[in-house]
Amino acid sequence: MIHCRVRLLSLLLACLCGLTATGQSQPETDAIAWIGDDPVLASEIDLLVHRRGLAATDLKANPTLRSALANVLVRRHLALASLRDQSGKAGAAIIDDAIQAWQQQVLASGKTLEEFAAQQQSDVAALQAEVAWLSLWNDYLRVRLNDANLQRFFETRSSLYDGTQADVSQIFLSDPAQLEALEKIADRIRGDEISFADAAAEHSQAGSADAGGRIGWIGADGDLPAVVAEAALMAESETLLPVVRSGLGLHLVYVHEKRNGDRSFADLTDHRRLRRDAADFLFEHLVDRGQTLHDVRWQEGQSERPLGR
């Protein structure tokens, strides 16, 4: 009986101490950044490390990893801020209900919120921020990703799903800092100062350099990074694309020819990729809107990163 009362008291204290949609009050030093007045907590990085199966030693071994994870979280908070702006009181109620349900589930397992958070290598505030994000994001996807909207999304970029193929060549540079140099190469190609094949043989770091950068026919699923394949498949034949940045580096792509596919939305038997791409599109839109409406401030000493993908 005493044990049950202690657990109940813990739940009541958690609710009275503000474990709601607005979050706990955190010291300034606990924040890595702010979206308006809302903090992005350092403990959220610890939780993200745990969620991705990493360890604290991975952060020490790779100094840029912490900065990259911070960027992921700031973008998530921007998207959440945008969702809160859109949903108003209804969104706040969704978050409050989700956090209360999470608290009850944890306490019913026989652990305090703090004990459960410690098992996740984080703290209660970080877990609460995660619950807030997932509750509002999943509700948003439930409403937006219906069949009618998925079909509209398919039709705006059908070449990515209908079996379209493109015959491409590329010049690849692994160092993102070489963007200006690669753009100058592109200008020389456009000005007929050098052929694409000769430029690829001279500058490309890809295995296709010896073949003048020629890769051949590609589809939506292949060896090229998705962002590169998508840009090529949505371009016209005989087009030199703007430089595309991927997780591997920089890509200058020339589309020689295209074969248009004929698969329709009704022909799709598996919508998982389409749903994932549509969700990514919605997320990017929310991040962009969040950046427009909210200031991002980084804690002094934190590495500010561009808020790209």
TrEMBL record:
Keywords: Isomerase, Rotamase, Signal
Secretion signal, residue range per the UniProt entry: 1-23
Gene3D superfamilies, alphabetized: 3.10.50.40
Top-rank taxon: Bacteria
Pfam families: Rotamase
GO MF annotations in UniProt: peptidyl-prolyl cis-trans isomerase activity
Domain PpiC: 163-257
EC number: 5.2.1.8
The protein's name: Foldase protein PrsA
Record lineage: Bacteria, Pseudomonadati, Planctomycetota, Planctomycetia, Pirellulales
